[in-house]
């Protein structure tokens, strides 16, 4: 009997450890006094037992039970265990929030203006907040449904474009253009390495020469130079005036037509005299030892 009692006690201890350990893993503290409330929802959005209950971001309890309200179809009653010290003001409500990963948590929103409180096992109203996923389902899904036919037509057009031989030719031309740009880039690199430095040196030499010329021009007496230029231009003007007048030889030569005709006639007579001299030289030059003058 003593051995059997020990085995029985060990079995009972194992069951107790299993019970309390299982509750601990579910977040239930068996040794901590708690108060029990009900929350009624029209949709619990996948809320599970042992889900945490928060108030202002702080965990104040867990979900213990979830039952369908057969007396009021369309509603689900959720039993929650809260810390015994938690007092819920009347007018407060619970809200279910669906997070990004699909998990659902319950938030209690307190009516801080109320001076009265719910008693244990009272029923609080609950609302469902689908969060970002719910908003996406409400707004994005209808838009996606409207966009699907357009996306289908876009894909068909894209397939036609990809199957068009002109696209392959365009890509080939782009490849050739890229090769040409690479060759041009290499030529530009060569130009920058060889010709541009030489051109820069030439420009530097030209700049230095211009600097020397500028320094030389700086020492020139421009006033004296312009006075000499004015004097020269004045002499040229006087010479031009004399050439236009008839009171001098050059003026008569350039302006008197009679003198021109006389000079022209004299030139003609001189030419005729030379021709006659060539034809009959004995008329003008006589040299004879024995004969007489040829007439």
Describe this structure in words.
Keywords: Coiled coil, Membrane, Transmembrane, Transmembrane helix. Residues 167-194 form a coiled coil. This is MlaD family protein. Residues 35-99 form the Mce/MlaD domain. With 295 residues, the chain is an alpha/beta fold. The protein has 4 domains: 1-31; 32-135; 176-220; 221-275, no CATH class. 55% of the residues lie in helices and 17% in strands. The chain has 7 helices and 7 strands. A hairpin with a 7-residue loop joins strand 3 (58-68) and strand 4. The longest helix has 33 residues, at 131-163. The radius of gyration is 62 Å and the shape is rod-shaped.
Summarize the structure.
Keywords: Coiled coil, Membrane, Transmembrane, Transmembrane helix. This protein is of the alpha/beta class.
Overall body shape = rod-shaped
Beta-strand content: 15-25%
- Number of discrete helical segments: 7
| Number of E strands | 7
Helices and strands, in N-to-C order? HEEEEEEEHHHHHH
The CA-CA distance between the termini, in Å, is 200 Å
Structural key phrases:
295 residues; alpha/beta; 4 domains; 7 helices; 17% strand; transmembrane helix; membrane; coiled coil; Mce/MlaD; transmembrane
SSE order and pairing:
Blueprint lengths: L1 H24 L8 E8 L10 E4 L2 E11 L7 E8 L9 E6 L5 E6 L13 E7 L1 H33 L1 H29 L1 H24 L3 H23 L4 H7 L1 H23 L16
